Amino acid sequence: MAEYIEGKRPIIEALRAGMPLKSVLMADNVQQDGQIRDILRKARQHGVKVKPVSRKVLDDMSERGSHQGVMAETLPFPYVNTTEIIADANKRAEERGGALVVVLDHLTDAGNLGAIARSAEIVGASGLVIPNKRSARVTAATYKSSAGAINHIKISQVANLASTLERLKKEGFWVAGASEHAQHTVWEAPLYGKIALVMGNEAEGLSRLTMEECDFLTKLPQEGKVGSLNVAQAATAIMYEWMRQCAVKAAQ
């Protein structure tokens, strides 16, 4: 099923980030302002076809009614094999003393996937692992929430998370599961070295089978009354704690 990006600024950002696009659909009566000219220029630079269509066609295709006279059809995301992510992680561990792989246990929101990918790329994670069924996948919403970072981090789809976690253990990773039911906070957990960080579903958290594969569970410290952070916010905070602990170990 084709995925579409709506609006001038999102399409400019997608082109700037190198998002793979099949074509740009542009209303034949759209005003040729600076942003439209920028889209035409960037599309030409990246070899993306621009197809003139009637505004009614865009109106019918639009999900949010915010196309501003232009939409872009995306190409399928280039997922990688988990072996590639592990190889990158092992190389990073040799060079820097630590490596991070983020495993997402059936997240359902593509925007959360993008936000986590953005944070993972910033802290230097080697990649993300997601299930190939009943899980969010990379869509236009993911590109938008990742702010282009999705183009710079590897993502693997797997059939079985449990077996993937077992494989990561054999490769020398400690599997840390994020759970509000954990006894110890991230300040107490050994989040340094080669870590596979497992984040759970937005509503239900970690599944029982996934939790059983974790070497330990950890949670964020809390002073307020709200039950927990959004999964993307929580993942970001834990990833930065991994980054901090690795830096402390390297300095010792």
Highest-level CATH class of the largest domain: Alpha Beta
Number of spatially distinct domains: 2
Sheet/helix structural class: alpha/beta
Number of beta-strand segments: 10
The biggest beta sheet is recorded as: 6 strands, parallel
Mean pLDDT: 92
State the shape: elongated
What percentage of amino acids are in beta strands? Answer: 15-25%
CATH superfamily of the largest domain: SPOUT methyltransferase, trefoil knot domain
- Fraction of helical residues: 40-55%
- Under the CATH scheme, the architecture of the largest domain is 3-Layer(aba) Sandwich
GO cellular component, one term: cytosol
Protein name: 23S rRNA (Guanosine(2251)-2'-O)-methyltransferase RlmB
GO molecular function: RNA binding; RNA methyltransferase activity
Keywords: Methyltransferase, Transferase
Structure description:
- The protein is of the alpha/beta class and 252 residues long.
- The protein folds into two domains: 4-74, 60s Ribosomal Protein L30, Chain: A (2-Layer Sandwich), CATH 3.30.1330.30; 82-251, SPOUT methyltransferase, trefoil knot domain (Alpha/beta knot), CATH 3.40.1280.
- It contains nine helices and ten strands.
- The chain has helices at residues 8-17, 34-45, 55-61, 82-96, 110-123, 140-146, 161-170, 208-213, 231-251; strands at 4-6, 21-27, 49-53, 70-74, 99-104, 127-131, 154-158, 174-178, 194-199, 216-218.
- Strands 7-6-5-9-8-10 form a six-stranded parallel β-sheet, sandwiched between helices.
- Helix 6 links the parallel strand 6 (127-131) and strand 7.
- The longest helix is centred in the last third of the chain and has 21 residues, at 231-251.
- The model has no long low-confidence stretch (mean pLDDT 92).
